[in-house]
Amino acid sequence: xxxLNQSPQSMFIQEGEDVSMNCTSSSIFNTWLWYKQDPGEGxxxxxxxxxxxxxxxxxxxxxxxxxxxKDSFLNISASIPSDVGIYFxxxxxxxxxxxxxxxxxxxxLSVKP
Amino acid sequence: xxxxxxxxKFQVLKTGQSMTxxxxxxxxxxxxxxxxxxxxMGLRLIHYSVGAGITDQGEVPNGYNVSRSTxxxxxxxxxxxxxxxxxxxxxxxxxxxxxxxxxxxxxRLTVV
Lengths: 113, 112
Hints:
The complex is a heterodimer of chains A (113) and B (112). Chain A has no helices and 11 strands. Chain A has strands spanning 4-7, 10-14, 19-25, 31-37, 44-49, 55-58, 61-65, 71-76, 85-92, 102-103, 107-112. In chain A, the strands form 2 sheets. In chain A, strands 2, 4, 5, 9, 10 and 11 form a 6-stranded mixed beta sheet that branches. A 5-stranded antiparallel beta sheet of chain A has the order 1-3-8-7-6, with no helix packed on it. The model of chain A has no long low-confidence stretch (mean pLDDT 91). Chain B is mainly β. Chain B is built from no helices and 11 strands. Chains A and B meet through strand 5 and strand 10 of A and strand 4 and strand 5 of B.
């Protein structure tokens, strides 16, 4: 099946630092999404990307859809303690009423105040 | 408007027991799905449904059954639990948009 390679697996950073994580795939996707998961909760959508080359921001978060359609990255600027959690990339080939998310294995972010 | 509700939140089973994980949504979404999350593995798709009466297998369907008799409910059944099914299970419902996934808060299942 399709697989997404997400890196790094974990990060320990100081508050105020910028964070970068990325996701690559052996297959093409027509949609990339980035989710955050807090402990004991389900994933919550951060950013959705729909076009190759697209760069989208959501507050301190910026994500890009790679031009090959096989990769995406997420940047978090000026990290704060509430950024702690697990970040997942997900690829989707959306068509009609179907389309299943394929998830990366996650990046666990820890922030030292 | 509760979104996606999963019950129970925690469950311990003995090997060979059966149980049903419940998932209900109040958003009238046609598409629903079940994922399992294991440490370091991300979320993997078990089964999904594109509407009442229609279900299909995902990446890891073995050992699990589903049915979809109503739009609102999508239960996941374990007929004979095995320790390999120890995991956190998430149900999701989706609108007609790629970004429209709503996840439940999960069921943590331990099989001993």
